[in-house]
Amino acid sequence: MGPSSQQAGWRQNLIALCLLALLVFVLHGSALHANWRWDDGTHLFNTTQYTPWSVFLNPEVTRAASGNQFAPWNLFIYQLNSALFGMAPQAFYLHHLLSLALAAWALYLLLRQWLQPWRALLAPALLVAGVPAFHMAQQLMVGHYLDGLAFACLALWAQLRALERRQWRWAWLAAVLYLVSTLCKEVYVPWIALALFMPLGAATAPMPWLQRWRYALPALAVALGYAAVRVLVFSGAGGYQPSTLTGWHDVPGVLGAMARMLSQGLVGPGLLGLLATALCAACALAHLATQPPQARLKALAAFAAAITVVGFPLLFVARPGLDWQLHARLLWVPWAALCVLWCLPWPQRLARWHALALLVFIAAAGQQAWVQRQHDRPIEAMFDAHYGFALQPPAGQVLLPVQFNTPGYMAAVAMSALAARERMEPGRAHAHPALLHRWPADAGERARIRVWQEGCQCLAPLDTLPPAQQQAALHAQLDDQAIAAPLRQPLPYIANDWGGAIDAITTEGGVVHVRGWTPTLGAGRKLFLTGFAGVPPVTLEGVQRPDVASAHGRADMQDAGFHATLRFASPEAAQAAAASLCAVVAGQLPGQEHHFLMLPIEGGTRCQNALMPARTRPL
């Protein structure tokens, strides 16, 4: 390739980057007006706890950064952004959208090894216009998915360079890029299959399988090393939740759930979605028809590698009843695979049919993307409002946090952002929001309370709701709740500190009684019980503890005591649970609103391994 052709190639690449960036900002530019959302507050707080290098080099911090996935890059992005931009969410979102554009461009660069520019541009254009992109562009906490795709595509691009030029330096570069992609998100670990089975580029001379696989040895070494470190960091292969795939008997149900999630999540249910799904299968067959008979075996191997990349990670998360709209990020890699599928050539005689089928696919995917946006907008507005109240509390108003995702979650993440800002800006005074912790005594107090309302998608006065809805909102916040959390052993990091106490755990047949007290203001205790198998029925009663109120000098802690009852199927199950039980409560006292607190058991430290590790960043 001469200098002029190289110059033209890079000019085309630059044009593609500009077009993809323009498309990203046209479709997703509204994210630049967003506030913090979802886990942003927790990640921001953790940036003030841990140094960037400890996230990668300290196994305890690595595990704490993302307890159910091996993804240290996620917290690193927040650390980088907070170092550059402080607490300015708009700058974070600008970086986030640029990451989306760069991920799409990396996919374009990879596809250019086989396809003409216009055809190679089709896949990344579809990528940024699908359900996962519309969902993920509005969530900072999934930025590592975007960076991971960029690094994974560049790793394959470098691998092709190694094969084309027979140079080991490109193979080592591919291994480094692949390593970074795996540190971004575990869904990119199976991409090693693509490095082994992807077709050679147009400029690459044919070579035997074993000879080309030699250049994949550095990446294979990374994959093996990753597996060893992953098991070491997590003391096994699992994360927060037990896997839905526990044996061969689960395979049909998991595969059925996966098929529904992919089809309905990406192109929607109904006739149009079914037609689009069928056309995807026809697209794969049509591309195989373009291959000469002697090359079809290699093409089938490449398809099998792609199916492995798409399907393997989903085997451990797909389950009947999964709300894929809340977890559309899980569809990111499958969507990228479908986008690549539609840019592959068909036989010339079917070119018009390809265009028609593509239009049907785009129509189905576009309609589903619109459905996803309607689903996401109220949730995004809800987070924007709660974070906004926590960081800029209106004078004289009291926030009644909505109970979303997990009891106590919304208050914890919003107050974590406030705690992070206080640490980042120690010389400034920061107003603290008033959170609701007691029943309003009169109409005047009700008028001061702000609660999330779906109708206006805003925080509105509690007394503007119908009486029944007012009571329901108050009960959701102020009623005690006990939740049995099915977390696998060893427990992930689920608590920030010790607080309260469990005074006694006793069994009576198949019933476990847990008695103690929590550092709460008496109302709205959210208690999580975990460390045992199954999800037993749980009841919770408040108990008067004047001794606790006296010790803390707070009369509003009279009801700090509790009696929780868990009912198991057998005395043996109850006794096993009593021996391994741990309890965590959402913090309420001033300065603890962003914490989940572990209750020590009879003065012991049985559950201390579930506490977040000590901070590595100096005060």
Automatic annotation (TrEMBL):
Domain Glycosyltransferase RgtA/B/C/D-like span(s) in chain numbering: 72-223
A Pfam family recorded for this sequence: PMT_2
Question: Could you list the residue ranges that cross the membrane?
Answer: 92-111, 118-136, 142-158, 170-193, 213-233, 266-288, 300-318, 330-347
Q: Which UniProt keywords apply?
A: Membrane, Transmembrane, Transmembrane helix
Question: What is this protein called in UniProt?
Answer: Glycosyltransferase RgtA/B/C/D-like domain-containing protein
Organism field: Acidovorax soli
